[in-house]
Amino acid sequence: MTFDGDHGLILCRFLFDGAGLFLWGVSVYLACLVPARLSQLLDHRLRVSRNVAVLTVIATTAGMLPLRAAAIGDGWRDALSSSVLQTVVLDTGVGRAWLAQACLSALLIATFALPGRHRPPARAVCAGLLVLTLAISGHAAMNSGWLRVLHRANDALHLLSGGAWLGALVPVLAVLPLLHDTKWQHEARPALTRFSTAGHVAVALVLLSGTANTMLIVGGVPSDWSRTYQVLLAAKIGLVGVMVTLAIVNRYVIVPRLGLSRSLLALKLATIAELCLGVAVVALVAWFGTLAPV
Ligand code: HEM
Q: Is residue 237 part of a domain?
């Protein structure tokens, strides 16, 4: 495949993974942890970013198939060849994942027809399944037999816990200013406390499943610097380390001082930093996931 095609695939993976994780994290947080009235307010306030994410999922799903066909076939001239497209969809793991993604994208659009309060749970189910399709197409497919099943299950846990942590940071940012709003603070406080409790579980699961993924793919600590995969994986682990440190500082240093002036601003800035690092993590994984690990 050509140089440009590789870059197109990595960009598509980054946008698809980012939008899918965002939709999953936001929807599951609004559906399960935020009181109903506040959930509807946040759902309305986040409508632009949510709609952009849905459009991104649709556009990248449409773009991914020709890119896969070009990669598997003989370059760009096979990108729109009906026989190559058919072979990719029917005979490959990435093709089957693509078919599931196309159906789930259609269901995601259908959620807009639902009444307001049913949208976050319906979107959480669609986006959760969408994120799970990544476990079919990633390096989890490199094993066979029971190890493949185990690897895919671990990947599924990794994707759902990582997305829940990262995606929920966006509505959490919208909750922070409401802590001092007399009309909303009674709902904003439990929404933040529940995020903090569930966040501990999500972070623990992402670290455990990420470590298991690394063991299953690389066979140990990434340290072969001649392999771009291992260099980027090590960079990803470093970034996640900074994210976890920020999360700990937020929870145990800043939150107990929330009554003090400027602590809310500190919490907001630290959450934005955590979010930006998370985007960089998704960009790295979109890149090294296309490379040979060992
Ligand atoms: C904020 C935390 C994290 C997020 C959001 C995250 C996200 C992701 C995503 C989206 C994928 C799948 C990409 C795809 O198949 O398209 C993935 C795979 C992976 N992650 Fe993470 N991850 C996080 C933390 C970690 C940690 C801490 C480790 C290691 C200790 C790790 C190791 C891996 C490995 C080895 C893969 C497999 C990539 C492949 O298929 O080649 N991740 N991660």
A: yes
Position 2: which residue type? T
Q: Report residue 275 CA to chain centroid gap.
A: 11
Number of structural domains the chain divides into? 1
Question: HEC profile for 234-247?
Answer: HHHHHHHHHHHHHH
Which residue has its alpha carbon closest to ligand 1 atom 6?
162
- Of 207, 32, 223, whose CA–CA distance to 121 is shortest? 32
Q: Is 133 within the bounds of a domain?
A: yes
Domain span at residue 253?
3-288
Q: pLDDT by residue (tens digit) across 240-251?
A: 999 999 999 999
Chain-centroid distance of CA 257 in Å reads 31
Ligand 1 atom with the smallest distance to the CA of 165 is 1
Nearest CA to ligand 1 atom 3: 162
| pLDDT score for 117 | 85
